[in-house]
Amino acid sequence: MEWYRRSIVRLLVVEDESRIADFARRGLEGSGYAVDVAPDGGQAMEFIHGTNYDLVILDLMLPDIDGLDLLKRIRNRKASPPVLILSARDAVDDRVKGLEQGADDYMVKPFAFVELLARVRALLRRGQPTPEKLQVGDLVMDCIRRKVVRSGETIELAPKEFTILEYMMRNSGRPLSRTLIVEHVWDVEYDGLTNIVDVYIRHLRSKIDDRFPEKMIQTVRGVGYMLGAVDKAEA
Questions:
Q1: How many Å apart are CA 133 and CA 162, to the nearest integer?
Q2: Among candidates 135, 80, 121, 126, which has minimal Cα distance to 103?
Q3: Is pTM beyond 0.85 here?
């Protein structure tokens, strides 16, 4: 099993709502990033003083300090990472104020994780011209150009198929539950039937497995699915 390796990208999520913070952390870690979570501005500044972060995801309504004041403190540092504001403040004036005071992007809650991930990647790509690639066996994914190739054959995927496959490739060899996949791909509020995952997995198998002798998507009974070497005991 092969893996495209890169230096660790470290993110800081500043969010006092534990459900949202945990959702973002699990999704971002599942996408290959190292993530710290700070529930307030004071702890956020302790993290920032002690760690060089590649990006900060910042809530504006914190219990101890206004997020815009924290943004100013971050910007006053010599080494200042990109900042993505993630806030329930959805008025145009709030968004304009955030961007004018130094935020690199502004995203409104509630949000879909797939959009958050896309915005994080867009900010991280600035100054990083080398495309990010993943490889498991003969399956290769170019995450920037959104291109998938297996054994030299280009495979066309729908957007959610691509996102599910990328999540599985970043976690190759690790069983992923249907719930984890749903939380990664769909909206943070999504609590519908997880059998939608089975539908997309069938689509993926028809595209990346059916025409090839080695089957890469495995069913893990009682858990969900895993991408990796073929399990010959599996029917």
A1: 13
A2: 80
A3: no
